[in-house]
């Protein structure tokens, strides 16, 4: 029986583990992939307090080292479901665990284009966060893929840094807010390419360009770039929990700043929950809040 079981080993989950262990609670962190989460895809991060510059991998390693140093237990497994009751049973593909509280910190994955070499080129020319990686492309040529609010905001931010910004949308129109469209199209260094699909990636060890196809005419072309920002949405990793906590229409766990879900004793921290800002610092904040709430519950039962 653990005081706190944490599902997910990204910044939210590992911060929760650190806080719970410092409160002298028994902690298990279950992670199905690599520890660190989405931050590990960033070759350089400059917006984490206390680090003028750090790679995503280095930051993740520090978090893991700190959690293990505090003797948090870890298990590499895929969580299949949570059985809810006064005590929680977490069922994985390699065993079952019981806990007084559970923190879900499974994050959200960036939706990919589904192209060959895409996974290998993440961090080598393919990025998802202009706030995180935009400075690397100052004075260079980049493309933003997508036409919603996130894509428009990414392109606006990049237009203040890059020499040239292409915004490529598969539809013949933008789906984002009109005010953002107007702001974007007023930028002299921004070129909008509508009704066009990215069909291929150019470059082996790093991205050097993309292959395009006009959705209406079928005409093909190539566009040489220094970087590409994919902004076609996020995919939360919450399918296994849909029967125990309430999800919104996009699949995010409904939980406020207190990280409490619809199920007593189950908390949601980081990118997997409903929230407006998804950054490493807000994930860490969620982890701390969820851990303290989980510890309080563990003391009460």
Write the layout of secondary structure elements.
Elements: E1 2-7, H1 11-22, E2 27-31, H2 56-69, E3 73-76, E4 79-83, E5 88-92, E6 95-104, E7 108-110, H3 118-121, E8 126-127, H4 130-133, E9 141-145, H5 149-159, E10 164-168, H6 178-185, E11 190-193, E12 196-202, E13 209-214, E14 220-224, E15 227-230, E16 234-236, E17 266-268, H7 280-300
Parallel strand pairs: 1-2, 1-6, 2-3, 6-17, 8-15, 9-10, 9-15, 10-11
Antiparallel strand pairs: 4-5, 5-6, 7-16, 12-13, 13-14
The secondary-structure class comes to alpha/beta
CATH class type of the largest domain: Alpha Beta
Largest sheet: 7 strands, mixed
Shape: elongated
Give the count of structural domains: 2
What's the number of helices? 7
Average pLDDT across residues? 94
Listing every helix as H and every strand as E from the N terminus to the C terminus, the arrangement reads EHEHEEEEEHEHEHEHEEEEEEEH
Rg calc:
21 Å
Unreliable stretches covering 5 or more consecutive residues: none
Q: Return the CATH architecture of the largest domain.
A: 3-Layer(bba) Sandwich
Number of extended strands: 17
Distance between the termini: 12 Å
Under CATH, the topology of the largest domain can be stated as FAD/NAD(P)-binding domain
Q: In percent, how helical is the residue content? A: 10-25%
Protein architecture, described:
The protein has 301 residues and is α/β, with parallel strands linked by helices. It folds into two domains: 2-109 and 234-300, 3-Layer(bba) Sandwich (FAD/NAD(P)-binding domain), CATH 3.50.50.60; 112-230, FAD/NAD(P)-binding domain (3-Layer(bba) Sandwich), CATH 3.50.50.60. The protein is built from seven helices and 17 strands. The strands form four sheets. Strands 1, 2, 3, 4, 5, 6 and 17 form a seven-stranded mixed beta sheet that branches. Helix 1 packs parallel to helix 2 (56-69), helix 1 (11-22) runs parallel beside helix 7 and helix 5 packs parallel to helix 6. The mean pLDDT is 94.
